[in-house]
Design a protein that fits this description.
This is DUF1572 family protein. Pfam families: DUF1572. InterPro entries: DinB/YfiT-like, DUF1572. The protein is mainly alpha-helical. It has a single domain, classed as dinb family like domain (Four Helix Bundle (Hemerythrin (Met), subunit A)), CATH 1.20.120. The chain is 58% helix and 3% strand. It contains five helices and two strands, in the order αααββαα. Strands 1-2 form a two-stranded antiparallel ribbon. Helix 1 runs antiparallel to helix 3 and helix 1 packs parallel to helix 4. The longest helix is centred in the C-terminal third of the chain and has 27 residues. The two termini are 29 Å apart.
Length: 175
């Protein structure tokens, strides 16, 4: 049961990671740093925040609070990343930490209580909390990408106006 749960989580996290990467692939380097106004975040800022959160939450998560003393959350929302290569490096650093944390969960520690900002969580609660958090930010990344690309945006799900044909296609595969 534990391994099936972890595998299910891994697939969902990998799906969201892939959606972010498919968005990056559609954009020019300068698009990664575009923001709507001074109060909004660029894709690069969102990536920096996601990575900071992942590193804080999942580094030594079985033994230490998920809000590390070395994390400076407010600085994650500053323009720190300066290139696509830096963005990809930071992105992968966060995801690697998350996937290593998933790999560390097993039958012997699955019932362990872990802490985020001194609040007790089961492993299930902690991973679900973060899955929702990451999904919301990846949705923001996709939305920014779609705003930038306009009519040139390549849908990452069922394209507008194609739901019926997609459903028919799916039904064919199930017959």
């Amino acid at each position: 049961m534990v391994s099936a749960y972890i595998e299910s989580l891994r697939k969902e996290f990998e799906r969201y990671k892939s959606l972010g990467e498919k968005t990056f692939a559609q954009l020019r380097d300068e698009d990664l740093f575009w923001h709507f106004n001074d109060e909004s975040n660029s894709i690069a800022i969102i990536v920096n925040h996601l990575a900071g959160n992942m590193l804080s939450r999942w580094t030594d998560f079985l033994n230490s609070d998920g809000e590390k003393e070395w994390r400076h959350r407010d600085q994650e929302f500053e323009d720190k990343i300066k290139s696509r290569a830096e963005l990809e490096e930071r992105w992968n650093q966060g995801w690697t930490c998350l996937f290593e944390a998933l790999d560390a969960v097993n039958e012997s520690n699955f019932q362990q209580t872990i802490y985020i900002r001194s609040e007790a969580h089961s492993i299930i609660e902690a991973f679900h909390r973060q899955l929702g958090h990451y999904a919301s930010h990846i949705g923001q990344i996709q939305y920014i990408g779609r705003m930038i690309k306009g009519a040139d945006w390549q849908s990452l799900s069922i394209p507008k106006g194609e739901s019926e044909s997609f459903n028919a296609y799916m039904k064919q595969g199930k017959s």
